Amino acid sequence: MNPDLKQRAAALLKAYEQKSLKIATAESCTGGLVAALLTEIAGSSAVVERGFVTYSNEAKIELIGVPADLVAAHGAVSEPVAKAMAEGALANSRADVAVGITGIAGPSGGTATKPVGLVHFGLARKGAPTIHLERRYGDLGREAVRHSAVEDALALFEKALTD
Questions:
Q1: Phi-psi region at 75: left, alpha or beta (left = phi > 0; alpha = psi -120 to 50)
Q2: Which parts of the chain fold into alpha helices (H)?
Q3: Considering its fold, how many domains does the chain have in total?
Q4: I want to staple 123 with a disulfide (CB 3.0 to 4.6 A). Which of 10, 37, 143, 156 is the partner?
Q5: CA–CA distance, 86 with 81 (Å, rounded to integer)
Q6: Residue 138, phi-psi category: left (phi > 0), alpha (psi -120 to 50), beta (remainder)
Q7: End-to-end Cα separation, the chain, in angstroms
Q8: What is the pLDDT of residue 1?
Q9: pLDDT of residue 163
């Protein structure tokens, strides 16, 4: 990861620790990169409660309780599933804030309506409505899509502190 992102993650963890808040992640296309970045920082255990890598549909359903009918109706890469992932991570952890990430990093798997580079995010917070963010990064290459998604996940965690 780039050093600027690591500094940003360190600042984020410090801000959460000062507010005594814990976070969780539910990651699909990023495969745990957000949790890995955060836990690379010494002292992260004061803030990072847990991370779920829910790469398959079954993992989304079994580990964090995403309704199977939601996946069937909208597909794994969708607003409803991203929000359900964040809510599921919150419900299945002791965190105060959770981010869910699902998308198509490529190079294959895209369609006309769900192209490579499409990523949906959910931000769930105790006592607040769940927020959705959609990004269409384009076909930048798998690594670039995943790293862009990590940056947006950090931005959502930052947003949760200011809302």
A1: left
A2: 3-18, 33-39, 57-64, 68-74, 79-91, 142-162
A3: 1
A4: 156
A5: 9
A6: left
A7: 27
A8: 62
A9: 82
